[in-house]
Amino acid sequence: MKKIYDFAIDLTLDVISGKWKPAILCHLGEHKTLRTGELRRMLPGISQRVLTKQLRELEEDGVVSRQVFGEVPPRVEYSLTEEGRSLREILISMSDWGNRHAQRENQAGQEIEIHNGSKSGFEKM
Questions:
Q1: Which domain of life is it from (predicted)?
Q2: CATH number of this structure's domain 8-123
């Protein structure tokens, strides 16, 4: 099926959008390689089904690599691809913008709380 986007940024947002995708990318940037269970422990509140779906989408988009080891029990590890690491500057900029925007909104009387304002995972990509 052919995908059509009005702007190139729409494709970028399509690849990285999703409630958990930025956090997944941040953790993989921080730790380089993670197993599914490790990622799930780092993302409280995510279900196994949603984690698997988000990882599959990131893999299909060439951002995350999945390596399966022929062991019992099976072991699967995820890491960023070169394409995934190329998102570094974009994710840092978006994180910085979000922090600045939250500060402005809070000063204007809105209540915005960012649980993890760290961008260290993106910086280590």
A1: Bacteria
A2: 1.10.10.10
CA distance 80 to 95: 19
Residues 32, 79 contacting (CB under 8 angstroms): yes
The DSSP letter of residue 44 is T
Minimal CA–CA distance to 43: which of 124, 121, 125?
Answer: 121
- Per residue in 40-69, pLDDT (tens digit) is 999 999 999 999 999 999 999 999 999 999
pTM, full prediction:
0.90
CA of residue 37 relative to chain centroid, distance = 16
Angle at 55 between CA 78 and CA 39, to 5 degrees: 60
